[in-house]
Amino acid sequence: MRFPLLRRAGFSALSLLVLGLPAPALALTAAQVWEEMQQISERGGLRQRAAVATPGAGTLTLEGVTLISEEDAPRVTTLIDRLTLRELDTGGVEIVYPPQLRILLEDDSGVGIDRAELLLETTDLVTLASGAPGDMSFDTTTPAAVLRLSAFEDDGTAEVSEFTWTFTDLALSSAYGAEIADSAFSVAQMSGAVALSAPEDDSALRLQIALTDYAFSDRGSALLMSPTADTAALLTGQTPYSFESRHARLSLAVGGQIDGVAGGAALSTTGGGSAVSFADGQVSVASRAQGLDIQALVPSLASPLDAAAANMALQITLPATPTEDVRPIGLGLKLQELTVDEEVWAMFDPVGLLPRSPATLEVDLTGEGRASDDLLDPRAGARTMLDLDSLSINRLVLDAAGARITAEGGFDVDLSRGGTMPGLPALSGRIGMTSRGLNGLLDNLAELGLLRPSDVMGARMVIAMLTTPSNDPDTLSAEIELKPDGGLVANGMRLR
C-alpha cells in the first residue's frame, strides 16, 4: 500500500500555523506581515497568494487565499476563505483564521492516491506576528483543532477509510531570520487514527496513537524547509540544526491483516523523548522511554506476547562528513529491567530451568574515528562508512537468565594491517571482564537442548583458558591484553 500524497499534508497544515517566537515589538503593518508570510512560504517551496486583498484602517482582509506546493507531484493546495490581519496597539499584528481550512492533495502519476481532501477545523485559531520585516516572529494558539479526511480518490488499489487527528491546547511558534528559523510546538493532548486497506491484496491496517503533554523545539529548520536545502552545510556544521522532543504518556496500536493473515502490536510508555543535532561536523541522535510496554499478536499463539522495560535509552554520536583528523564517536544503550511473559519463556524453557528475573543490558562505548562517506550520501549504500581509530568500553553489563557479565577496557585500531582474526584490523589494548553464573547458564542451556554437548565443551575450554576462578561460587574474572605485535596475554600469561 502506497500513500505518497499524505506525506506532505502535515507540513502544509503546519506551515499555515507555525510562524513564531517573540521578538522585540515594533510597529508592524498588516501589509508587511502579509508580505513576510509569502516570503517565508517561498523559502519552504510553497506559493501563497490571495485572490482579493482589501486594506482598511489598520486592517488587511484577504479572500481566496491559496498555499500551493511548488513540487509537481504530489501537489498540495491549501484553501482559506478569508484571513483578517489587524494591527495592534502593541506594535504587532493579529492574524485571524476562519474555523475551517481545506487541504487538497493531487497526484497525476497514476500510482497510489489520485486525489484527497483534508479539513483542518479549529476553534479560535489566532496568530500574533511581531518583530521587523526580515526578522519576524509568529505565535499561534488554538484550544482545539481537528485534521480529518473528507474525500479520497485513488487508482483502485488502496482505500483510506479514516484519517483523523485531534489536538487540545495547541501552541506553535517560529522565529524567522535571514538564514535560520527556530520553531516550537506543544499540545496538551494529541490523538490520531488512520485506517488503510488494499482489497485486492486482502489487506487492511488501522493505526491509533495518543500523546499527552507533547512538545518539540528545533533550531535551523529553515535549512530543511527549503527545496534547495544544502545538506553539505548541514553535515559540516556550517548551518547547525537541532531538534528535541518530550512527551508524557504515549500509546500506539496497529492491527489488521496482511494478505489475509491477522496480526497487530501495541506500545505504550509513561514518558520519553528524542533529540537530534548536527553541529561541528558531528551528528548526535538520542532517544529514551520510561515505563515501556510492548504487546504483539502472533497468529500462531492464542494470546498476545508481552514485554516490558523500566527504562530504555539509546545515544549515538558519529562524524557526519569525511575529515583528515579523527572525530569523537559514541554508542550508549540501556535496557533496564526487561521482562517478558511466560508464553515467551515457554517457547524455549517449558520446564522453568532459567530464572525469570528482569534482564538488563547496558553499553557505553566511546572512541575516535573518521567518516569515509557523507552520512546523508545515498551513494554510500552498504559500504563501511566509519574507520575506527580507537574504542573504549566504558561500561558493558549483561544480566539475564541467571548470569551476569561485566566488562571495561579499550583498544587502539591499526587499519593499515590485518589482525589475527580474519576480517578484523589489528587491535592493541586491554579488556577486563567478570562473570557470575556463566557455567550454570551453560548447564541449563544444554539441558534444554539449546546447546549441543560439543558446544558446551568448547565454551568451557575457552573459559578455562582465559579466566581465573574466584572464591565465590561460579564467579570468574579475566584480564586480557592484545599486544601491538599480535600477542595475546590472559591474566599475565602469554598465550600467543
UniProtKB/TrEMBL annotation:
Q: Which UniProt keywords apply?
A: Signal
Q: Does the keyword Signal apply?
A: yes
Signal peptide (residue range): 1-27
**Do the record's keywords include Signal?**
yes
The name of this protein is DUF2125 domain-containing protein
Q: Write down the species.
A: Dinoroseobacter shibae (strain DSM 16493 / NCIMB 14021 / DFL 12)
Q: Which classification does the entry list for the species? A: Bacteria, Pseudomonadati, Pseudomonadota, Alphaproteobacteria, Rhodobacterales
